[in-house]
Amino acid sequence: MTVTDVTVGSAIPEFTVDGVSGEHIRQIALILQDPNPIHFDLDAVARAGMGDREINQGGTTMAYIIDMLAAWTGSSDNVTQIKCRFRGNVRAGDTVIAGGEITTIDAGFAECSVWADLADGTRVIDGTATVNLN
């Protein structure tokens, strides 16, 4: 990819995770040694008033945005900065769609507005990212 391939206002191709895996959520909790039971204990999820499915780690949901940027630019090495605000939860079984749009281009770098939405349009993350277009 080069700077000439994109313009301000261009959409970044979406990245979709179709049906977040509860098993994957539990595995990530083990790998990260994350003791928060909302990632693996359905009774704890219910006691917290958060429904009846495991809750995805926020960092994993943000990684879907990074995956989108890496697929678009050709490498995760091209993602130089990301800042996100977590607005909602992703649960096991949810479909997540990461998207973005170029807001500025300067000296071979693109500033982008980025987000992750549930299939019903609920925005669970929004933020900004900088990618190297060279």
TrEMBL record:
CDD domains: R_hydratase_like (cd03441). InterPro entries: HotDog_dom_sf (IPR029069), MaoC-like_dom (IPR002539). Pfam families: MaoC_dehydratas. Residues 22-111 form the MaoC-like domain. Belongs to the enoyl-CoA hydratase/isomerase family. This is MaoC-like domain-containing protein. It comes from Rhodococcoides kyotonense.
